[in-house]
Amino acid sequence: MIGHQHTRGGFIERTLASLIAIAEYSANAEALVERGGVLQRVDPRVKLAGLLALIVAVAASRRLAVIGFVFAASLLLGLLSGIRLGMLAGLIWVPVLLFSGVLAVPALFLTPGPEWAPYITYPGIRAAAFLISRGGTAATISAVLVLTTPWPHLLKALRSLGLPVVLVVILGMTYRYIFAILQTALDMFESRKSRTVGTFAPNERRRIATAVVGALLSRSFQMSNDVHQAMLSRGFRGEVYLLDDFTATRADWCWAGLFAGSAALAFWLGR
Amino acid sequence: MHIPDGYLSPATCAALYCGSAPFWYVALNRMKRALNTQMVPLLSVFAAFSFIIMMFNLPLPGGTTGHAAGIAIAAIVLGPWGAILSISVALIIQALLFGDGGITAIGANCFNMAIAGSLVAYAVYRLISGRAALDARRRVIAAGVAGYVAINVSALLAAIEFGIQPALFHDASGTPLYAPYPLHIAVPAMMIGHLTIAGIAEAVLSAGAVAYLQRADPSLLKTTAPGASGSAAIETGWGRTRPLWIALAVLLVLTPLGILAAGSAWGEWAPEDFGNAQARKQIAAASHDQAPPTSAPAGLQRLSTFWTAPLPRYAPAFLKSAAFGYLLSAMAGTGVIVLLFTSASWLTSRLRR
Amino acid sequence: MNIFSVSDVTYRYQNVLALDHISLDIEEGQRVAFLGANGSGKSTLLRLLDGLYFAESGLITFRDEPLIPHMFEHDSFAFDFRRRVGLVFQNPDVQLFNPTVFDEIAFAPLQLRWPKQEILQRVDEALERMEIQQLKHRPPHRLSGGEKKRVALASVLVLDPEVLLLDEPTAALDPRSESQVIELLSGFAGNQKTVVIATHDLAVVADIADHCFVLQRGQVAAQGAPKTILDDTALLERVNLIHGHRHRHSSGIIHSHPHKHPHEH
User: What is C178-203 written as a DSSP string?
Assistant: First the structure.
C-alpha cells in the first residue's frame, strides 16, 4: 500500500476520503445484505465454507479455463443475489486491474519462451493472465460472500467452522470499534481542517498527522479501558458465551452439495 | 504490502498459515495470562486502531505521501505479543470484509507484517532505546528506526515469498502459475518502494507518535521501557524477555523450513520419485549420510547438497547455490543456538531455586 | 435499610484525587441524584458502587457486604452482584460492543448463563419496553445517539436489576429520547428499584430524584430534597453547577448549561 501522489497539501482531504470510503463500502454492503436474493437465503455456514472452497480451488488451478469458469459462476451468483455489475466493477475489478494489471505488464516481456509478438512471449501472456484472473476471481468471490452475508452472521459462521470463540468475539468487537475510532479520527481531522487557513509547511503537516495518530492512540487506550469496565459490569468474567441459532434447511444441504461438487470439480479439472 | 489472492501458491500459503499458528497460540496465551478479562477489549480496540492507521495518508519529506502500517507503534505501546494479535486481527478484517489482501494470503500477510514485523520492531526499539528516560529523544529515534526496519523486513519476506514462486510453481511450458518474477527481480522491485517511501512513512509515523505520547500520555510508553526511570518495571530481566527470544529463534528456524516445505512437501515432490529407486536413495542419502566435513569448502558443498536434495529437479540455480543454502542454514542454526541458550538459562534458573 | 453505605472513601487516578474521604448512605428504593460539575467525582463514585473500581481507603458496602476485590473472585458473589446492580455508562459507544442490538441485550444474561428460552423472551421484553423492536438486528454503529442510549438502557434493564446506576443519562440526547428516558426514570418512583443518577442537568433532577447529593472535589458539599438544593442559588454557583448569568424560563424551570471553565468568560 504505497501512495505516490505529488499533489501539494490536501493530505487531510485524502485521508478523509479513504476513511469515508471505508464507511461507504460497509454501508453499501449492509444495504445490499438486507435486499433479498439467491445467496441471501443460504445458510451462512454453507455459504462461507462453499465460497472459501471455491477460492482455494481457484488458487490451486493450473488451467485458465477453470478459473474463467469459476469466475463466470460467481458472477452469476452475484447477479442473482442483486449485486450490480457496476458495483463489482467499481469496488473489485478496477482496483484489481490497477494493481495486478500494472504488476503483470512486465511479465509479458520478462518471462522466457517463444515469442507471440516482438518481445512478448506466450508464457508471458499466460503468466499475466493467471495473475489477473486468479486475483480478480478470488476478489469477486469474497465480495459476493461479504455483500450477501450480514457481518454478525459471518461471525457466527466462522465460529461454527471452528474458529475459537475468543477470536470471533475479538473480530466482532474490532469491526464495531473501527467505526467508533473512524468517527473520532474524522472529528480530529475535521477540527484541524476547520482551523486551517492557507496551507501548512510540509513538516507542519507531518506533525499534525502524527499528532492525530498519537491522540487517537491515547483515546483508543481510554476507550478499551471503558469498554472493559462496561463488559465487567454486565457479568463478563473472561469467558464469552454466545447463542447459536442457525438451522440448516433441506435447501441449504442442496447448496452445500452444489458448492462441494463444483469445488471438487474445479480442483480435479484444474490439476 | 498486502499480498492479494493469486500471488502465492496454495502450498506457500499453507506453509505460512502453519508458520503463523504457533505465534498466534503463544501470543494469545501470554496475553490472556497477563491481561485476563482486559485482553478482549484491549486487543479489539487496538486492532481497530491499527486498521484505521493503515488508511492514513502521511505527508513525507519531498512532497510525496505514503501509507504506513503502524507496526512499530503497536509493538511499542502493547509489546510484541499484543502487537502480533491486534495487527493480525486488523489484517484479517481487511482481507475478509474490505478485500485488502487475499483470503488465502492471510497467513502470509500476518506472518510478514504482524509477526515478523512486530518482533523485529520490538527488538530494534528495545535495543536502541535501552534504558533511556521515557521522554528521551533517543526513544523517538528508536521508534523511527524500529518502524523503518520492521516494514522493510516485512517487505523482504514478501519479496522472497514472491520470488520463489516462479521457480517452484510453473506448468509444463514454463509459464509461472503465481507471482511471475524470480528473486532477482522481486526483491529489488519490492525493496525500492519500501526502502524509500513506505519505510519513511513508517519511520515518520512511529517517531512522530512516540514524540506526541511523550508529551501527552507518557504512561502508554511504559510497557516496553522497563529500564526507564519512573516506569513500572513490568518486564524485568531475562525471565520476561525469554519468550521473545524463543519466538525469534523459532522464526529463524521456520523460515528456511517453510520455504523447504513449500518447495517439497506439498504437490511438488513428484509422486513418481517415490517409485524411483534412485530418487529414493538420494532422499535417504540426504538425511543420513552426514559425514563430518573434512575442509571448509567441502563442508559447504555438502551443506548445499543437503539443502537442495528435497527440492524439485527444476529448482533454479540460486536455490541450489551453496551460498543461499548456507544463508538459510545459518538462519536455522542461529535459531537453534538461541533456543539452546534459552532452554539452558531456564534450566539453570530452575536448578538454582 | 441502607442498600449502599459509603464511609470515608478515597480514590485516586494515578496522582489525581477523585474521591476525598467521602461518606454517604443510599436507602433501598430511593432515587438519588449525584449533582456536580465535571471532575467532581460523581462518575468515579458510580463505578465504585458498581464494583468496577475499589476504594483506596475507607469502605463501601452493598447490603452490608463489603465491595472489595476479594469478593468478586468468587463466581457466586460476582454473578449475584452483577445481576442485582446495573450501570448505564455515559458514552453508549463504550457500552455497545456487540455486533447487533440483539447480541447486545442478550450479552449480560448470556454471561450469567441463563437458559436460552428465557434469554430470548427477556430480550424481547426489554426491546418492547424501550420501544426499539425495529432495531433488533441492526449493528450499533448505524444507530443515532438517542437510539444508542435506549439500547444501552435495554441491555441493563434486561436483567431487571434492583439497583440502576446511570451516568449522565440525559446528556446529548434528542428531545424525544430525552423525554422517553425521563419518563422511564420517573416511572421508578415509589417502586422497589433503587436508582442512582450522576448528572449535571439541573432541569431533570426534580423529575427523576427524591434525594440529592451535591459533590465537589470528591466530597459531599450538600445534600437534601431536590427542591431545597435547586433553590439554593449560592450553593449551585459555588460548586460551578450554574453560572452567574443563570436564567429562569417563564415556566420557572431552572435551565442552565454548566461551563467547564467558568472563569474564562
Answer: HHHHHHHHHTTTTSS-EEEEEE--HH
Tell me the pLDDT band of B248, cut-offs 50, 70 and 90: low
Residue showing cell 445490499:
A32
The per-residue pLDDT for range B199-238, each reduced to its tens digit, is 888 999 999 999 999 998 888 898 888 876 544 444 333 4
Q: Which residue has the higher pLDDT, A18 or B23?
A: B23
Give the strand order in the sheet containing C219-224.
C85-88, C163-167, C194-199, C31-35, C211-216, C219-224
Distance from CA of C228 to the nearest CA of A (A): 33
Closest-CA residue of chain C to B41: C97
* φ/ψ (deg, to 5) at C209: -135, 150
Query: DSSP per residue over B29-59, as a string?
Result: HHHHHHHGGGHHHHHHHHHHHHHHHTT-EEE
- Report the C-alpha gap between B208 and A236 in whole angstroms: 36
Angle (CA) C23 C29 C31, round 5°: 65
Pairing of strands C163-167, B65-67: unpaired
Task: Please enumerate in sequence order all residues whose Cβ is within 8 A of that of A101, keeping only pairs 6 or more positions apart, or say none.
Answer: A132
Among B23, B28, B45, most A C-beta atoms within 10 A, so best to mutate, is B45
**CA B95, B101, B107, B110 torsion-angle sign:** negative
Cell numbers for B241: 524477555
Q: Which one-letter amino acid corresponds to residue B80?
A: P
Q: Which residue has the higher pLDDT, B169 or B298?
A: B169
Tell me whether residues A135 and B176 touch, CB distance under 8 A. no
pLDDT band of residue A161 (cuts 50, 70, 90) is confident
- What is the rounded distance in angstroms from the CA atom of residue B44 to the CA atom of residue B119? 20
- pLDDT number for residue B303: 38
Has the ipTM of the complex gone over 0.95?
A: no
DSSP 8-state symbol, B293: P
CB B199 within 8 A of CB B152: yes
Average pLDDT, chain C: 86
Q: Are the CB atoms for A205 and A9 separated by under 8 Å? A: yes
Express each pLDDT in C103-156 by its tens digit. 999 999 999 889 999 999 999 999 998 889 999 988 888 898 889 999 999 999
Percent of chain A with pLDDT over 70: 93
Mean pLDDT of A22-49: 83
Q: Is the pLDDT of residue C199 over 80?
A: yes
Backbone φ and ψ of B254, nearest 5°: -70, -35
Q: What are the pLDDT digits (tens) for B38-65? A: 899 999 999 999 998 888 878 777 667 7
Report chain A residues whose CB lies below 8 A from the CB of C123.
none
CB-CB contact of C44 with C18 (8 Å): yes
Distant-in-sequence, close-in-space partners of B232: CB < 8 Å, separation ≥ 6: B222
Contact C161, C84 (CB under 8 A): yes
What span, in angstroms and rounded, lies between the C-alpha atoms of B200 and B213? 20
Whole-angstrom CA distances from C212 to A71, B269, C6, C33, C39 are: 68, 80, 15, 5, 17
Q: Are B66 and B200 in contact (CB under 8 A)?
A: yes
Output phi, psi for C68, to 5 deg. Answer: -130, 155
Inform me whether the C-beta atom of residue C124 falls under 8 Å from chain A C-beta atoms: no
Contact criterion met (CB below 8 Å) for C127 and C105: yes
- Identity at C9, one-letter amino acid code: V
pLDDT averaged over chain B? Answer: 75
Contact (CB<8Å) C97/B44: yes
pTM: 0.81
Cell of B227: 529500564
pLDDT for A220 equals 92
Indicate the residue type of B254: L
Partner-chain contact A130 B6, CB within 8 Å:
yes
